[in-house]
């Protein structure tokens, strides 16, 4: 029963978000038909978003293998799932308890303070709970004290990061209806901050002028398809047909395979945007019930793709800028005595794209480029700095990919050293 609740229900983001929608609709005493429809559509929207993300990840993984082969890149690729899977073997129970109690702390803080954010990105909650359990254990904490302090820390972080981002989220969405609940917040915060200082929000990425003959590029799906096609085929030429046709495509011509993967990527972006639109259409009105009854004025803090539909061009620009920053950082990391972090395409796409949207909201095109570039530097250097900390815990050769995990891990380990 415990595993059912912690892993299968609370650990499944779509179910978690659907439960909150259900509670919100019940509190509003909606008709049963509306409750069923609203709950199912909320879950469906989240699943569509997830399906789009999986399409993107599969395409990016193929591209990553081609890129590594083409340019003989060696180093460490950050992977949240990999390190959490290893850590769960040692801190599984502590992680589950910290996650459950941390969510309760989140709701209590939202109820009694002016920070009304309910963090709904379940998998990131679990990753952070796991990180906190592992780091606190190095200070000699075990059992109830570890769980209590860990839950308190997690609950505070689940409110703090959305609160820090909210001024920029309001600039992106034009309302206070939603927040961003994703532990890549530091990158988005830096992107919004820098964007405001280097750019002009009036010159937005969404109004980039193109000649009439190239008007089809205004369609995001077409422009992403063409951009990724060029990128895939260039890398494929360097990787060579032999590698692609024997290792990746199952014998399919390497150019045809690259073309399909590029368009598959664009299809993934399209699906993600469709899922987010459906999710927002259902979760925002459903959340009104919670806002009115349990936590007055509560605001749902959702995964980072939530902001993608507000600036689709900035999504693509942010991804490329963040990835280029990751490539450049590879050459500078050894100069600081740090391990080489190979830019993972998945974190650079999701956090880079969101950083691009934040940068665009405050600084237009220049803000999108510079802001997401700064995010790329952050998610290269912070995981490299965290790496020795994790190695001391026995997690060698891997590290977290998103900025908040690294920052929290580094700060917590420094605090523990001060008091032990």
Explain this structure to me?
With 420 residues, this protein is an all-alpha fold. The chain has helices at 2-9, 13-27, 32-71, 80-112, 122-137, 143-173, 185-198, 220-239, 241-248, 254-292, 312-332, 345-392, 403-419, and strands spanning 117-119, 179-180, 299-302. Helix 3 runs parallel beside helix 8 (220-239), helix 3 (32-71) packs antiparallel against helix 10 (254-292) and helix 7 (185-198) crosses helix 12 (345-392). The chain is globular and about 55 Å long. 51% of the residues are buried. The model has no long low-confidence stretch (mean pLDDT 86).
Descriptive keywords:
3 strands, mainly alpha, about 425 residues
Count of DSSP H/I helices: 13
Q: What's the mean pLDDT score?
A: 86
Could you give the order of the helices and strands?
HHHHEHHEHHHHEHHH
Radius of gyration over C-alpha positions, nearest whole angstrom: 21 Å
Assign the structural class, choosing from mainly alpha, mainly beta, alpha/beta, alpha+beta, or little secondary structure.
mainly alpha
- Tell me, briefly, the overall form: globular
Q: How helix-rich are the residues, as a percent range?
A: over 70%
* Ends apart, CA distance between termini: 37 Å
**What low-confidence regions span 5 or more consecutive residues with pLDDT below 50?**
none
Write the layout of secondary structure elements.
Elements: H1 2-9, H2 13-27, H3 32-71, H4 80-112, E1 117-119, H5 122-137, H6 143-173, E2 179-180, H7 185-198, H8 220-239, H9 241-248, H10 254-292, E3 299-302, H11 312-332, H12 345-392, H13 403-419
Parallel strand pairs: 1-3, 2-3
Helix pairs in contact: 2-3, 2-10, 3-8, 3-10, 4-5, 4-6, 5-6, 5-13, 6-7, 6-12, 7-12, 8-10, 11-12, 12-13
